[in-house]
Amino acid sequence: MSGKDAILRVEHAGFRRGHRTVLHDVSLDIRMGEMTALLGPNGAGKTTLLRLLLGLARPDSGQVWLDGRPMAHWSRRDVARRIAYVPQGHVPLFPYSVRDIVGMGRLAETPFAPTLHERDRVAVAHALAELSITHLAARPYTELSGGERQAVLLARAVAQGGHILILDEPETGLDYGQKLRLYALLRRLAAQGRAIVATTHDPIQAAGIFDRAILLRHGRVMADGPAASLLAPPMLERLYARQDQAKIEESFW
Amino acid sequence: MTLRARVVGCLCMVGLLGLALLSACIGRFPLQPGQVLHALLMAGHAPAQGDMVHTVLFGARLPRIGGAICVGAALSVAGAAYQAVFRNPLVSPGLLGVLAGAGMGAALGIVWGVGHAGVAALSFTGGLAAVAFGVGVARMFDAASMLMLIFGGLISSALFTALLSLLKYVADPQNQLPDIVFWLLGSLTQVTPQALGMLAGPVVVGIVLLSACGRMLDGLAMGDEEARTLGIPVMALRYGVIGGATVLAAMTVAVAGMIGWVGLVVPHVARLLVGPCNMRVLPVSACVGAMFLLVCDDLARTLSAEEIPVGLIADLLGVVVFVAVLPLLRHGWRA
């Protein structure tokens, strides 16, 4: 692995939940300008790995490095300036407008400001335009469709302005056209020099979109390499192969 | 800030000032608005001998008006802050036991006969102690879990309510028990200029500090983990806001007894007026709460010859307001 432009690095990370080991000795580098897909059957440890990358959980062994410093040494605010996260769509109880939600992406810059500063407002407007959802700005987020919500959360991540974008199954609930637009956007963001990491359940499409694929199985990195060559039938059969009964029980949760 | 928020903010301030002036005029000894304004302008000068207007205004009415404004504002902003922190619009400032604890502290003071200031001090301490106990219980199991925090508050409320009942049981039924009961009904009759002076500063500071956290509280509405990825120090924010709101709520009980409902109802009215953003909801809640309690206290003073406890009026009127705005709220919530 070339450590030169690795902005985010996982080194021999292990993670346990209770008696079960979720991740075994996982190492990987996330590089600027590269689109990385994270694939694996349910329960392989994708979500846990995302949480390590986001600094939401700490590995029990090994280390996560952000910009050359251990993740634990960064404040939440400084992490948020570098890494933006796009969760799977969900709905808060209070009907915040789309502009409010996208504006939350600026919290790391101006947490105590009563209103958004000019710079923040420009970032929000730019993000709304980038996602072509400027017309939704005043609408309550709670009343949007799933695809529109996904776009809003993406806009928030763009407004946040970090170099690294981490997405949790971003294509969930999108129709075919929305998926294509999402991938085009991600390509554009990567071309601007950002590092993109996304979990996905769609290896066929990922093969054509992502630069690189990391395959997780039973909490280990099974393969890590160019998406186009890795995400081919033989490897996918191994990745998603039915497991024998003992292994199913082991990895069920 | 949107135009609508600005207009609402201005209307709230004007409404509050108008209501305060009106409240200064009405009562057993009615005054003309001109008399009130004149007396206020002349406040710096020594009053003429036997100036009834001055005595009524500065001795009785203004401290009370100030008390109603402070208590209403503090309870409402505390309620709005609690609702944001717990991501639940049905939460009141009493959730973690502050009201039960403060009530128990006051009853203890009455049973011990420590005097008015002592009762207030014990009540304030009791409120903080109850919340500290509830948070302590939560942290014993899982500090990061909101459910545990609510559970801790439930236990704390139950404990301090039981202790309050015990104190009622052992209190002298001739004089102490009526004092406790009356005190728990909530009243602004005891607000002295000195007490108001001690209350006003912290209430203003509290409202400003909590409002300054408004945008971070909005981020908290997205869930703890997501809020962290937005750069919010979730635990520090949660416990800091709980601490501030608890101090505010405990102070109101120490000064005016138990006036609980306001804190649950008023933030809903504020959200209807300015939308869900806490940067606006918190200050508007304070303003609306002040107006609400001012109206309640005016009713308490004027409805009958014998004064009615304001806590009782606030509860009744709060129910009416809540039922009235409920259809509008249902539209705003996802439910």
UniProtKB/TrEMBL annotation, chain A:
Annotated ABC transporter domain residues: 8-243
Alphabetical list of SUPFAM superfamilies matching this protein: P-loop containing nucleoside triphosphate hydrolases (SSF52540)
Keyword ATP-binding: yes
GO molecular function: ATP binding; ATP hydrolysis activity
Statement: the UniProt record of this protein carries the keyword Ion transport: yes
The organism's place on the tree of life at top rank: Bacteria
Keyword terms: ATP-binding, Ion transport, Nucleotide-binding, Transport, Zinc, Zinc transport
InterPro entries named in the record: AAA+_ATPase (IPR003593), ABC_transporter-like_ATP-bd (IPR003439), ABC_transporter-like_CS (IPR017871), Metal_Ion_Import_ABC (IPR050153), P-loop_NTPase (IPR027417)
GO biological process, one term: zinc ion transport
Pfam family, one: ABC_tran
PANTHER family: METAL TRANSPORT SYSTEM ATP-BINDING PROTEIN TM_0124-RELATED, MOLYBDATE IMPORT ATP-BINDING PROTEIN MOLC
Stated family: Belongs to the ABC transporter superfamily.
Name of the featured protein: ABC transporter
TrEMBL record, chain B:
Pfam families registered for this protein in UniProt: FecCD (PF01032)
GO cellular component terms attached to this protein's record: plasma membrane
Sequence intervals crossing the membrane: 62-82, 94-114, 120-141, 148-171, 191-214, 235-259, 279-296, 308-329
Gene3D superfamilies the UniProt entry points to: ABC transporter involved in vitamin B12 uptake, BtuC (1.10.3470.10)
Membrane disposition: Multi-pass membrane protein
Primary localization class, coarse: membrane
Keyword Transmembrane assigned: yes
Keywords: Cell membrane, Membrane, Transmembrane, Transmembrane helix, Transport
Compartments where located: Cell membrane
Family, per entry: Belongs to the binding-protein-dependent transport system permease family. FecCD subfamily.
Designated name of the protein: ABC transporter permease
Species of provenance: Komagataeibacter swingsii
